[in-house]
Design a protein that fits this description.
- The chain is an alpha/beta fold and 409 residues long.
- 32% of the residues lie in helices and 18% in strands.
- The protein has 2 domains: 276 residues, Alkaline Phosphatase, subunit A; 91 residues, Gyrase A, domain 2 (2-Layer Sandwich).
- The strands form 5 sheets. Strands 1, 2, 5, 6, 7, 8, 17, 18 and 19 form a 9-stranded mixed β-sheet that branches. A 4-stranded antiparallel β-sheet has the order 11-12-14-13, with helices on one face.
- Strand 3 and strand 4 form a beta hairpin.
- The chain is globular.
- The structure holds adenosine monophosphate (AMP) and zinc ion (2 copies).
- Adenosine monophosphate binds next to helix 8.
């Protein structure tokens, strides 16, 4: 082969490699997962969310997002990023008692919240680390664990009072990083409209203002993404952890009063209460609650219907009481505590009641356009993100890509 042909051949090879690298970098996908705490699926139909409505028309819009039981903040945020039910990922409630060591995990206890020992799932940023891609979190349950392999590349410790605009600006800064530093997966969390609905009820002026306010944050986010040329490049997934339903003091059941003849340990009030009692009394206590079963359901841990996915974890107490939607389970301690106001709305109830459902809206290069679908399940969001990012998911999950893949292009 003469030198000229050799040179031409080499040029062709270089050209082929160059176009491959172009295709590859073009294909690199980015995901921004945003959560609006307690944003019930039908808040989108109140005519006060123009920015969210624009995105839902342009991208994929699901009727609702079914959470996992119990329909609480911590269990469901961790489900969204692990693809696991709480009985498998270990965050079975916002407040968890380890009955063997008497240690407790709870929202607001920063030491416990950062202790990796409570988290039994593989969060998406751990998956990202395993697959060699960068991730970032502007707040998310489980993102602050004190074990580097379980942390996003970049994250902040939770600060409830940090203005929303600062969180958005933080996300924009991450996207402005050079290619080799830029995270491909980013999470962003807003605590409203959950707080306002708890305090004032789902149909209150205050809740509507909070809904409109988070919607305006979506408008600002899109505007800022547009400014840096990222609004059409990023895959935006907008979700909520659960819905909300109105409650009142008339619909309260004092479980301790029903069990006044027994020495029980009660854990949790509101939609779900767990009860522990001496092993030889479990059946008796269960039967007493069963006899009085009105406006709630009672189960022994080993007999709870599989549909709750709430039996496997060792920290689940022997007896579980679940209030009917709108009802609240209380104990004497709850009633004796003087609260400045009582909750007007709550969540935590069974996952199939529509009031407990959240939102799912997505838009970006990986998603279909102008596509409407029915209810999606939040356990499937983790495998969906893994698929978009082309990373190997954890295989021990409850989610299933087959149930959700059809929303992708
Ligand atoms: P709840 O309505 O009781 O299920 O919980 C909602 C509250 O959880 C919010 O008002 C937040 O203050 C709190 N929260 C959400 N995410 C985090 C987090 N990553 N760390 C600490 N607290 C959080
Ligand atoms: Zn929540
Ligand atoms: Zn809440």
């Amino acid at each position: 082969m003469n030198v000229k042909i050799k040179l031409i051949l080499m040029e062709i090879i270089v050209l082929i490699l160059f176009s491959f690298s172009l295709i590859f970098s073009f294909d690199k996908q980015y995901v921004l997962l945003v959560s609006f705490d307690g944003f019930r699926w039908d808040y989108l139909n109140r005519g006060i969310t123009p920015n969210l409505e624009k995105i839902r028309n342009e991208g994929v819009y699901a009727l609702s997002l079914r959470p996992a039981f119990p329909t609480k903040t911590f269990p469901n945020h961790y489900t969204l990023v692990t693809g696991m039910f709480p009985e498998n990922h270990g965050i079975i409630s916002n407040s968890i008692l380890n009955p063997f060591s008497n240690e407790r995990y709870r929202i607001g206890d920063t030491v416990a919240v950062r202790n990796h020992i409570w988290y039994k799932g593989e969060a998406i940023w751990e998956t990202a680390n395993r697959n060699g891609i960068k991730s970032a979190s502007f707040f998310w349950v489980g993102s602050e664990q004190n074990l580097p392999i379980k942390q996003p590349t970049y994250f902040y410790h939770y600060d409830h009072n940090l203005p929303y605009i600062k969180r958005i600006e933080g996300v924009i800064e991450w996207l402005k990083l050079p290619d080799d530093k830029r995270p491909q997966l980013i999470t962003l969390y807003f605590d409203e409209p959950d707080s306002k609905a708890h305090r004032f009820g789902t149909n209150s002026k205050e809740t509507n203002e909070a809904i409109a306010m988070v919607d305006s944050m979506v408008g600002i986010l899109i505007y800022k993404l547009n400014e840096i040329g990222w609004d059409n490049k990023i895959n935006l997934i907008l979700v909520s952890d659960h819905g909300m339903t109105d409650i009142d003091e008339e619909r309260r059941i004092n479980i301790e009063e029903i069990l006044k003849d027994y020495k029980c340990k009660f854990d949790g009030t509101g939609p779900v209460m767990m009860i522990d009692v001496e092993r030889n009394k479990v059946e008796e206590v269960y039967q007493v609650l069963k006899k009085n079963e009105k406006n709630y359901r009672v189960y022994k841990k080993e007999n709870i219907p599989s549909y709750y996915n709430f039996s496997k974890y060792p920290f689940i107490f022997p007896i579980i009481v679940i209030a009917d939607v709108g009802w609240s389970l209380v104990d004497n301690n709850f009633l004796s505590r003087s609260t400045s106001y009582s909750l007007k709305a709550n969540h935590g109830y069974e996952k199939d009641h529509l009031d407990m459902h959240g939102i799912f809206i997505a838009k970006g290069p990986a998603f279909r356009k102008g596509y409407k679908t029915g209810t999606l399940w939040n356990i499937d969001v983790y495998p969906l993100i893994c698929k978009i990012l082309s990373i190997e998911p954890n295989h021990l999950i409850d989610g299933d890509l087959n149930r959700i893949e059809f929303i992708l292009k």
